[in-house]
TrEMBL record:
Cofactors: FAD
Stretches assigned to coiled coil: none
Family as reported in the entry's similarity comment: Belongs to the paxM FAD-dependent monooxygenase family.
Positions of the UniProt region annotated as Disordered: 245-269
One Pfam entry name: FAD_binding_3
Protein name: FAD-binding domain-containing protein
KW Glycoprotein (keyword) present: no
Residue ranges of domain FAD-binding in the record: 17-180, 315-361
Length: 370
């Protein structure tokens, strides 16, 4: 069969793709583009060291979201889980409720993954330029000029805003970002419980809960107060845990624990009323009594969490962002949900997988629409 006549048109150069942020959405998109050999650069605000150390906590990964990551990473479900499960350090699977006989090793199930490990795995060999805080963007023709706080300027045809719930890109484009706050008072603490020190008993209780009962996330309710203990990383030496104290907030006009309009820096200010309320909790099960001990909590790193959600921009706003600025929003910068019970990481992965496929399809067609 004769081969088709060669096209006279020169091939379109690949688009210059700049991704702002190196969180879960950006790293997933980077992996997808790398797999399709499409060039891109990720610009991250934090230093490489900060990025490596942050996000030491567990998130629930759902199979429909993480399935494509297995291809991107060339791993099977078991190997993926072994690398990331919060109790992987003691041979666990990250399954809430434990590894039952109905859960073959190869099964794709929701599991608790350590977010720090997930980002480390996704970021391997990707082009990430750290310490690049986006400060402005301007479009001229089909090129957007990005300016970073370190003075660097970068030109891009396509800009992906994957810079999280407080997205600078969204702000720079003056897109509405009305965060809605649910009426809950939520305080989160982090603690490292060592197996060998005076916390040995607490470690044993946690170890037992995880190993025997698959209790990766433990909950206890007292009245309207919900106490949660989550395993972030469990090894034979220590248990890294996050715990949260939450209850409806703002019912009393002077509720000292509910501060919906506090500044970001005030999140670290813990009212003494929290310790008073915790001290009044009675007859807590052993491990809750250990963790929710007001005196121990005073020494922990505590944060006030606001249960905020960010509705997505309208279709008209998104179309304008693409047509006038060459910008696509991804993950939390487009839509965010409250932290407790969030599906945000999964949504960020799903967004990034869909966008990566879309860009790859466009490339296959010759990039005529770039
Ligand atoms: C404690 C906690 C527990 C959670 N648990 C779950 C869970 O169980 N399940 C779940 O699905 N989701 C969970 N989530 C939510 C989930 O983590 C987020 O929805 C998800 O990380 C969103 O990903 P993203 O890539 O869109 O944004 P992010 O992960 O927030 O990434 C944004 C990135 O952009 C960078 N950046 C910001 N501004 C700039 C700038 N101007 N220039 C350059 N870079 C910038 C940031 O440093 C960051 O790296 C949890 C979140 C928290 C905090």
């Amino acid at each position: 069969m004769p081969s088709p006549p060669p096209s006279n048109r020169p091939p379109m150069p690949p688009p210059q793709i700049s991704i702002i942020g190196a969180g879960i959405a950006a790293l997933t998109l980077g992996r997808s583009l790398a797999r399709h050999s499409i060039p891109y650069t990720i610009f991250e605000r934090d230093s490489a060291e900060t990025a490596r150390r942050r996000h030491r906590y567990g998130i629930t990964l759902e199979p429909q979201a993480y399935r494509p990551l297995l291809d991107y990473l060339d791993l099977d479900a078991k190997a993926f889980r072994d690398r990331l499960a919060v109790d992987g350090g003691v041979g666990g699977t990250g399954y809430q409720g434990g590894n039952t006989a109905s859960s073959p090793a190869s099964a794709m199930q929701a599991f608790r993954a350590n977010r720090q490990k997930l980002e480390a795995l996704l970021s391997q060999d990707l082009h990430v330029r750290y310490e690049h805080v986006l400060s402005s963007l301007a479009r001229s023709g089909d090129t957007t000029t990005l300016t970073f706080a370190n003075g660097q300027e970068v030109k891009a045809n396509l800009v992906i805003a994957a810079d999280g719930v407080h997205s600078s890109v969204r702000n720079l484009l003056s897109m509405k970002a009305e965060l809605k706050t649910l009426p809950y008072a939520v305080y989160r603490g982090k603690r490292l419980i060592k197996a060998a020190e005076d916390a040995a008993q607490a470690y044993q209780l946690l170890f037992h809960a995880v190993q025997k009962e698959g209790g990766i996330v433990l909950q206890h309710r007292q009245g309207q107060t919900l106490l949660q203990i989550q395993i972030d990383d469990l090894t034979a030496e220590q248990a890294d845990v996050t715990y949260t104290y939450s209850r409806p907030g703002g019912r009393e006009p002077q509720d000292p624990l509910f501060k919906p309009s506090r500044s970001k820096s005030d999140a670290r200010e813990t009212p003494t009323a929290l310790f008073d309320e915790v001290a009044q909790l009675s007859s807590l099960p052993d491990i809750f009594a250990e963790v929710f001990d007001a005196e121990k909590m005073r020494k922990d790193r505590l944060l006030n969490w606001l249960m905020r959600s960010l509705p997505p921009p309208t279709e008209a706003e998104m179309t304008r962002a693409v047509q006038e600025n060459g910008v696509v929003l991804l993950g939390d910068s487009a839509h965010a949900m409250p932290i407790l019970g969030s599906y945000g990481a999964n949504a960020a992965i799903e967004d990034a997988v869909a966008l990566g496929e879309c860009i790859a399809d466009e490339e296959l067609k010759g990039g005529e629409d770039w």
